[in-house]
Write the structure tokens for this entry.
Amino acid sequence: MTPLHAPEAIVVRSYLGPGDERSLADDVLDGLTRPFKELPPKHFYDARGGELFDRISELPEYYPTRAERAILEARAADVAGDAAELVELGSGTATKTRLLLRAMADAGTLRRYVPIDVTEGLLRASAEELVCELPGLRVHGIVGDFERHLGHVPAPGPGRRIVALLGGTIGNFPPGSRRRFLRRMAALLRPGRDRLLLGTDLVKDPVVLEAAYNDAEGVTAEFNRNVLRVVNRELCADFDVDAFDHVAFYDREREWIEMRLRATRRMDARVAALGLDVAFAAREEMRTEISAKFTPARLHADLAAAGLRAVEVMTDPDRRFALSLSERSRSQRTAQP
Ligand SMILES: C[S@@+](CC[C@H](N)C(=O)[O-])C[C@H]1O[C@@H](n2cnc3c(N)ncnc32)[C@H](O)[C@@H]1O
């Protein structure tokens, strides 16, 4: 089939070679030998993990996606209307991103979209759709790990650049790493011109929060267990995936949701690619994600620690989610991306 768009409209560069495994091997070796076992959430996202997350975002209990979309529907033109370029970390299906790109196209300023995601299939599919929907758009896709590959983001063009991290993904970082990562995103911004668009889920009634991560259909449970399927496939491990229960609870002191996998019985697993034997006691838990919730004070303190200043903080009508637009303070030195 002939593409409807110019072939040069899409460039995709992959920094995840066959030997790379998205740092999975190192993370598994670290995480499964700790006294309290832990795996980082980026490893949920193979093709199936991406599809499961998409289903989660449609669930009645999972309000963050709807709340963030409501803000973008109301404010996309104010947020992105005069921008030329959108760099999006963890772009996924880029569903909400379309609202921003359309606002930029309507204003006649849209030039380039730079999505970065570990899931190549999703990134390529959304790039194809977007260049068909928005004539003249160029996509420079980066298949990579945004914790390791921000240095491959191309230099900005002449117009305003927006760097976006949506979906509350920033909440997956523990507090110190979160500030370090904000600093690295800030380094992609030119002071006085570019903006960071950051989605943050807000502190609220724990009943609402816990329901969002314990849906009745069990999709979040499948998403949680998917990390073990990824380890089994990519590192030749033999975890009995169905022998782990999904656990999600709100830690009121730290104000974050924690997801864990709990072994339903004592078991031994072998991760053949690492020559690693792992023992789980009955009911032993392994942490697979934290999702920090924000107060205005926490948001402003984190931004300030990264040399950023909020220009505007927008919320949905129910005040469940916040989308902040920040700029880099002129005086601040920031990290290399
Ligand atoms: C919670 S989903 C959010 C997707 C979309 N931005 C949204 O708001 O609906 C997180 C996305 O980030 C990607 N992701 C997670 N960790 C990543 C990493 N370290 N580097 C690159 N992409 C990552 C996943 O593949 C997934 O598409």
